[in-house]
Here is the input.
Amino acid sequence: MARMSANLTPFLTQWAITALALWVASYVFRGVRFDSTGALIVSALLLGFANALVRPLLIVLTLPLTLVTFGLFLLVINALVILLVSALVRGFHIDGFWTALLASLFVSILSVIIGALVTGGDPAMTIRMPQGSGNWL
Here is the structure.
């Protein structure tokens, strides 16, 4: 139980930071809108899951293109992930690719800044993966 709560606090903190960054982005960018607080909360949660699950897969699949563009294609991947989340969450609207690109940059940078301020660089506030033997099968 203690192990679960050790990972739950950093997860909830990151979720709140992402929600705050998305909320601020909706005031900075005219093309980012939330119909309700619930849509904002669900969007932040789904964005976290998409960044953890879908984004790494996209990075691997587009690795040659990412290498040729010296990593700049990662910005496109970030925009596509935000567009995916907006397509999946009713009440979260993004007005096109360029808005998604700028909003994803803004949310990423703001999340890092808020995260540094909130956690103070505390290693206890990082989400830890379970330690095991390393065998997948």
About this structure: The helical segments are 2-28, 37-61, 63-68, 73-88, 97-119.
